[in-house]
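agent: user wants the full assembly modeled, not chains individually. Plan: 1) parse entity lines 2) check alphabet per entity 3) run joint structure prediction 4) return tokens. Steps 1-2 passed, two entities, 604 residues total. Proceeding.
--- entities ---
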Amino acid sequence: MTPAFIALDWGTTSFRAYLVAVDGAVLDSRADAGGILSIADGAFEAAFERHVAGWDPALPVLASGMITSRQGWVEVPYVTAPAGLVDLAAAIRRKTTLSGREIVFVPGVCLRGPSGVPDVIRGEETQLIGASDASDGMYVTRGTHCKWIEVRAARIDRFATFMTGEVFAVLKEHSILGRLMTVGDASGGGFELGVKAGLNERDGSGGLLHMLFSARTLGLFGDIEGEQLAPYLSGLLLGAEIAGARAMFAPGTRPITVVGSTVLTAPFMVALKLAGLNSQLAPEDAAVRGLAKIGRQIGVVA
Amino acid sequence: MTPAFIALDWGTTSFRAYLVAVDGAVLDSRADAGGILSIADGAFEAAFERHVAGWDPALPVLASGMITSRQGWVEVPYVTAPAGLVDLAAAIRRKTTLSGREIVFVPGVCLRGPSGVPDVIRGEETQLIGASDASDGMYVTRGTHCKWIEVRAARIDRFATFMTGEVFAVLKEHSILGRLMTVGDASGGGFELGVKAGLNERDGSGGLLHMLFSARTLGLFGDIEGEQLAPYLSGLLLGAEIAGARAMFAPGTRPITVVGSTVLTAPFMVALKLAGLNSQLAPEDAAVRGLAKIGRQIGVVA
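--- prediction returned ---
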């Protein structure tokens, strides 16, 4: 099949490029941990050309993720929510590289919450365009930072960032909570116990800063095994995230569409089920699909 | 004045010893960062003798803090709450060192909360005995982990640990939230803004895992200066702690007694005031006073 365009999903800590056919089929791909933080002196073009060596330089390139941020290759200012496909397409920035490639950079989306506090997504808007088929409802992207996104009238209406993944990582690696954790069979009851505790974060529970300490004391008192403590902490944080997001978005009974790699989406969907919430999985290539839609919208992809 | 006993407050990351007169006056003291984590192969006695060189070996020693834990010198099992001076005194452990010193080790206190989850204090029970004069009410000790302790009928009735100090430290040092923080004048409005945001953690706010991200976006959008971001995050966490603890303990209008060093108690008391709660400062030598009371109770101190 003939390649139609190159999809570039270049984030803070990972590089992913896809050679895509006109029907959306991925013909080839290149990926590694060379995120934008690993690029010195703004040498993005050299890194990009090294990654996509052999791919036709006449193909248009569509790029999303932190590569479009201030720390990236070409900064694209945020579009303010509500924002849909047409709004994103109208705000893209273009660049022609030294080697003659035409690159389109997709903007992120920002908003100010009810109390005036800003929030941002960059990269997730493209995943959402790819995952949504423009249908209204809740979408959640999984990653270091997780984004709960509400689509209304085919546009990103509002969203909120949850630092769940990063908070888990820093507490496990750098706090006292990691000390009693051991590596082993994580399939026991720790995760479910944690989710239920996190979901019950309410008046009288003391809140998250108190409940976190249970990931130490349950181990100290032998209530749960060392190998269950990391799943417990992960569950506790997912439960607290879901409790907070549910109160914010009131998702109702419509299934929540979950976007991301299986290792992150699977436990989250278990946690949603424990919370009594329905969910469904988005296609894994949501970013590629989103870039294709934006490319068609601006006439760069056939 | 004649020395009456040696008070030893030996924690995870600090060593403090005091030479104390019969009236409670501190005649001499030794302190450094040689906490129990820095002691290799259980060589506690050698480290102790090095620190207190020159102090009369005939004086009784009273010890509290993590030195009485499983990782310490002599493990003293937890006493279960409710527990007061008499209960603590009845559960002490004694040791005679190779050099002939008589050491009394004070127990910590444990409980299981309403949902059966354990919680513990070790060292704070002694500070509390020293700070309380046995009067009923709420006490809060400040440190890496903070303890809200309710005294009822002159005993530690219930308590809860909040990981506020450690969570602040790991987020500042190891998460993306530290990236935009700059060092500078911290006296601006960031701290107060953070406390108010944290106090408002409630249904619809998204909860702490969402609100933490504001310590990045407020900086990204220039709403607050880089030097205000660390005070903002500190205030946000203190506000969330107070909101959670208030719902748990319903402290009412009686002043909350705050225990700890000024650098930690001062911002916390400002945060309590912003929450509309009254507070008063405990004497800085609460641990020494508590050890003296326990010593008198068991007849080791005159």
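agent: reporting back. Chain B has a mean pLDDT of 95. The two ends of chain B are 14 Å apart (CA to CA).
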